# Entry
Amino acid sequence: MFRFLRRGSRPLKTVLAGATHFGKHRDHNEDAFVVLPEWSAAVVADGMGGLSRGEVAARMVATAVAETLRKGQSAAEGVLEAHRRIREASIAAGSERMGSTAVTLRIADGEATVEWVGDSRAYLWRGGALTQITKDHSFVEELIDAGAITASEAENHPNRNVLTRAVGIRDTLDLKVDSTKLPLKAGDLVLLCTDGLHGYLPQASIVECLRQGGEPAAIVQRLIERTLTETDAGDNVTAVCAAVEA
# Structure
């Protein structure tokens, strides 16, 4: 548990918890996550590449980000380090497709820093409303931006899982890590998740799970259980919650 000070107010606490499940139709888990309570930080990654390659790539992202945060560096530096390591491992193994998404959270001085690549997402739950913090690096997101399809049409688009940016892709030497900051207050909750959750569980159900409240550990378990019981759960499912408390 990590405490931080806000000027003119009492210290706030951040409580984090995460969980993952391989889903209904996968025999292994290519998601990975790390929670670092001492840094009030977390990272979620969703590997791709088939067989064990996606699992390896996701684990490399989680490991690299955790290492850089423990050194006092930014999560983005960890994502870039993971990009280098995955590319090198992919080239050495002769793998044509090995990569991962990444979404990270670091809370300090009453402010959340979220950095990401791919379509794993971060959401803010505040005052009974859910707001998406990140913007997917995906083919359908580009179609939405171009006005070619609506957000509701994107949910069932056949290419909704096609990424336009990922960590470790061999033909990309440089990688742009998107970043945003937002002030936090007591009662806020930040949710990180892979598309195995947000791509299957409707947003109304996510809101219902968050509205029921409880400790972050109970919330992530509820989200995963709802995904498994109410959807086809065709992908690995991972969620991390960070609750800001007075």
